[in-house]
Every structure is written in C-alpha cells, then in structure tokens.
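Problem 3 from the worked examples.
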Amino acid sequence: MRQLIEMIIQEFKEPFKDPRELRSDKRDMSIEKLFYLLIDETPRTFKKGLVVTATVTRVLETRAICRLENGLTAVVHKIATGEDCLATGHIVTGRIDKIITDSE
C-alpha cells in the first residue's frame, strides 16, 4: 500500500514524466555500434574484405556511385571508359575496401 501511495504522490509531483528508467548503454553507444544497428548488420556480416553486390545509380568520369543491398551508398573507383563501361542500372559485384562513417 505504501508503494502505491508513493507512486501517486510522484504522479502528482511530475504528471507527465516518463516512468521508464533510462538505459545508460543506449546513451553511451559508440558510433560503430550505432552504425551497425542502423544498417541492420553486424561486424561479422558487413566488414572490410567482404564481397557484396550493388546496383549502379550514377556514373561519373572515373567512378560510379552504387547502392548496396542493405541501402548504403558505395563508390567504385577507377572504372574503365568506353562502350563496355558501367551504366545506370547495372549490377556489379565488388569487395569492400573501406567502411567510412560520418564521424571519420
């Protein structure tokens, strides 16, 4: 009964306060952990050296911008120019050389 009364008193003092306790591990999350959480991958399933498939979305003079299957944007450097070069919509397979987040 005492606990119920204390909860009622607390409700009168702060009527719109969120009763859930804050999770300290969520506030102090590292950039890497947040990155993998947002792309719904793990460091084992998305890492440097992994072979991935991407769709070409834009072709520039010496590189191509691609969209990976998980929604991330990838850049293919040093593409060949000519009739057999990449075009928008082509599906390419490549190896991850570097993973760059906004914090870097």
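Problem 4, a separate protein:
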Amino acid sequence: MKILVVDDNEDIRDLLRSMLESVGYTVTTAKGGMECLDLILKEKFDVVLLDITMPEFSGFDVVQKLNDSGKLSENNMLLFTAASIPDSEIEKWIKIGVKGCLRKPFDPGAMFEAIQNVSVV
C-alpha cells in the first residue's frame, strides 16, 4: 500500500514514515500543500495523511483544490491536526469527500485502523 504523508514538520514526517514503513507500507512524504498536490497529480496513493495547518497552502487548501478539479473522490484523504478545529468544521470536509480526521497526538493503533478503513472503501 502506498501512503503519502504531508506535514510541514520534518520530525512528524519522519516519525510517521518510520511507523508506516515498519508495518510494510510504502511511504512518500511532502513538506507542504503544493508539493502534495504535485505528487497526487503525478502518481496514485492508496491513502494521503494530510496535516491541516501548514503555512502558505494548508491541508484545507489541498482538499479544496482537489474538490474543485473533481479529483477529491479519487483520493483517500485522512486529515490530521493538532489545532483545535471544531467537529462541525471537520464534518463539513467529510461531507465533500475527506475520509476522516485524526487529532494529534493520536494513538498509532487509531492511525493504522483509519488507514485500513479508508483503503478498503
């Protein structure tokens, strides 16, 4: 399974890459929203773990661009955030096609479960 991890924090990208590769996933990382979009347009990922709060081009910007171009439904997007974004905001994004949201810090088991749940849909 191919997973794209997108976060502006290098330590988080490295940690998630390590965790995911340790169970056999193939992981690509991106440090921002624009790089994420470029990668999604070039190759297919089974799941995209996307940080919401990034400078310049946020996770929400990525989701909006994909939605506007009709490509959101082609991608299993799981948002993650440390920000205190209300559940109503997350529900809005789920209604347009995001598969779920993990709040940092999250339990690795919950992350693996979320990945499995969206990848079989």
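Solution to problem 4. The chain has a mean pLDDT of 91. The beta strands are 2-6, 26-30, 47-51, 77-81, 100-103.
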